[in-house]
Structure formats: C-alpha cells, structure tokens
Amino acid sequence: MKKKLIAVTAAVGMLLGLAGCASGGDGGTAAGSGEPKPVEELVVGFAQVGAESGWRTANTKDIQAAFEDAGIELKFSDAQQKQENQIKAIRSYIQQGVDYIAFSPVVETGWDAVLNEAKAAGIPVVLTDRAVDSQDESLYVSFLGSDFIAEGEKAGQWVVDEYADATEPVNIVQLEGTTGAAPALDRAEGFADVIADNPNLTVIASQTGDFTRAGGKQVMEAMLKSNPDIDLVYAHNDDMGLGAIEAIEAAGMVPGEDIKIVTVDAVKDGMQALADGKINFIVECSPLLGKQLVDIITTLNEGGEVEKRIITEETTFTQEQAVEALPDRQY
Fold first, then answer.
1. What's the gap between Cα 127 and its chain centre?
2. Which of these, 15, 177, 178, 324, has the minimum number of CB atoms within 10 Å of its CB?
3. CA quadruple 220, 221, 227, 231: dihedral sign
4. Residue 40 buriedness (CB in 10 A; 0-12 / 13-18 / 19+)
5. pTM surpassing 0.90?
6. Which CA distances in Å does 215 have to 177, 191, 220, 232, 243?
7. Is residue 117 exposed (0-12), middle (13-18) or buried (19+ Cβ within 10 Å)?
8. Is the dihedral angle over the CA atoms 39, 40, 44, 50 positive or is it negative?
9. Are the C-beta atoms of 271 and 251 separated by less than 8 Å?
10. What is residue 148's predicted lDDT score, i.e. its pLDDT?
11. How many CB atoms lie within 10 A of CB 150?
C-alpha cells in the first residue's frame, strides 16, 4: 500500500509547524512590508467541486459561514464537477489578484500548469478535502482534509470483522466515487488492502456512481441485474449508498438485511438510514473544514507557518451510535 505523509492535527494551535508558504509570494501581507494585511482587506478565492452530495453542500455552507464570521471576503465558484471549470475559476482568481486561493480538486491530476501560474503570481494555494498528484509540492502551501485511505481501511475492517466466520464466498459490490478523484482512489485502495486478509471476501463488481444518489441508484440497479447474489455494498459516500437503498428496495429486498451496506461520510440522511437499519456501518468524513481553513489563511497572513498535511479528526458509527448522535448532528 502506498504511504502518505500524515500530520495529525485539528487544533488551531497545531497549525504552526513544518512547512512555510511554499509559493514564494507575499500572500496577504502588505506589499513589500512583511506586515499582515488587515483581515477585512483579505480576499480569498475558493473553487468548489460542485454540489453533488449532501456532504458537499454542508462543506460549502460551512466554509462560506466561517469566512463570513471572520470578516474575510470569499469569492466562490461552483465547478459542477468539471476540472476545466475549476481551472478557469483559479485563473480568474489569479487575474483578480486575490490574496489566497483554496480549492477541492475534482480529480488528482492535471493541475501543475495552473498552480504554477498561481505560484508565479505569488498567490499561496491551499488544498481542501482532496489532494493533487504532483511531484512539485511547492505548488501548494497545505492540504487540509481527511485520510481517505484510512477511511477505506475502516470500512474494510468492519467487513472483515462482520464476516470473520464466513466459510463461503461473500460477494461485494463497490460504488466508486468520481473517476480519478482522490477519495475514490484512496477509499478503494484502503478497503481492498484490508479485505485481502480474508480470501472469502471478493469484490465482484465495481463502478462509479460519481458520488451522487442518482448515480448510486442507477449503478446498483444494473449490478442487481447482472449479479443477483450480492451480499454487501461498499459505497464511497452516503449519497450513493442511499441510491443503492432505493434500488435494493425496488428489487423487493431489504437493505441492511438481505444486502448489507457500508458507506463513508456520515451526513444526516446517511445517519438516519443507519439508525433505521438500512445501512449497517458508516465511516465519518467531516465536511466542516471552514474554521480550519480560515485559521490557515490568517496564520499565513500573519507570517506564520502551517503543516503541509493537516488531517481532520473523524470516527465511525454503528446503528446504536447513529441513534445517539443524530439529535446533535450539524450536517
């Protein structure tokens, strides 16, 4: 399994750390003075993936609210899950001369050119939620988000434990996230690594549902027709798992019983399905990154340094834990 650098911290105090502002520009500091720019004068451009899921909607709302609370102007764009739209938005932010750029990459590859443009303009870039696959780590200051491989491993471990006594093949289907996206690649990798310990656990079909509920339903419908003996669904997010539930019920089966379901995210709709017994296990992936992103921006603006890799703290949920957590769930 490939190894990724992990620096675990969610606390504001731990933002001071190893890697400095790698872009080489002054960022939000007053031009040539090295003095911090007044917070109310800062401008940050944020290029969001889209609005493909409940998780993404919660992520957008949290980021917008955090910058509003901090009094920092946030220019926001929705890429509608298209890389070319994000690149266009980032170039627009560069032309506008924003102080910082943050974005959640639609896919891992193909960013070097536009990130080099931001670097040449002296605009620090922060990656949120998803990473980029680039040999040049100086193209971004920090990555704030989850350890997607660990999420896949947690999902896989539940499956290994659930079927520890299995003596016959367990047929698993996987609903993948957007092709080429970091969470899709890493959640698949982590899951596969862990279930490999039990030869009875086999992924018999794997297809992208593009992180959407409609996509999950459509893919699950096709999988049920071509693979009538499915024991478990592993969905890379709650929305695809919820779509799978619709397809399973339409086929006259009981989700959570006839076919077990494991998902990632822990948004309210997913947690409700878990509490209702339609999903069996959820690995949390928190969308509430707004405050940490503001902390990164303000730390850089004050001339401080931030960790290159900042991991969010997350947990897992069983049915009983979902019932307990739901009343206070923020997203």
1. 11
2. 324
3. positive
4. exposed
5. no
6. 10, 21, 8, 18, 7
7. middle
8. positive
9. no
10. 96
11. 17
